[in-house]
What we know:
Layout: E1 2-4, H1 6-9, E2 15-22, E3 35-43, E4 49-62, E5 69-84, H2 85-94, E6 103-106, E7 110-112, H3 114-123, H4 152-159, H5 162-168
Parallel strand pairs: 5-6
Antiparallel strand pairs: 1-7, 2-3, 3-4, 4-5
One zinc ion binds next to helix 4.
Amino acid sequence: MSVNISEIKSAPGLAKELHLSLEGPFEGLQLDGPVSADLEIMSGSDGTVSVRGSIKARVILMCSRCACDYSELLEVSVDELFVPEAEMQEKEEREVGVEDLCVFGYSGDELQLDDLVRDNLIAGLPYRPLCKVDCLGVCPECGQNLNEKKCSCRIAEEETDPRWEALKKFSVEPS
Ligand SMILES: [Zn+2]
Ligand SMILES: [Zn+2]
């Protein structure tokens, strides 16, 4: 998705609001519906263009406990800078690692927003996805998804756990 910035480029300091719906696809993300982006773009007097706002998307993730696929709503805030590509190359020659600055390049009057949207969504993915906070995971013995039903090996284990037997001896007698 690209947006035309000729209007704001000619008026530094003037902000323009964008409300976008992006269908993707975005590499590394499995979308569950379109991405919605509410962004404000503004050009600086030095030719840079700042993009701020928020991006919302439903993505399909794999639960880190039970390995099932589930849909999660991601909401990330965005604060990025676009620099004219000609200037970027110049910078790259002068200082190493311009990539580390998380600066995007643009040329002409068009801003390409796909990389910005993708990078921000990927950065907002949970480190350990969970289908629900109390996901029970899978039984290490038989592989049964314990959210769906209990397996017999787990019940048997709980009933005969010697640690619980030991604790029973410490039950408080009323005095
Ligand atoms: Zn789960
Ligand atoms: Zn089991």
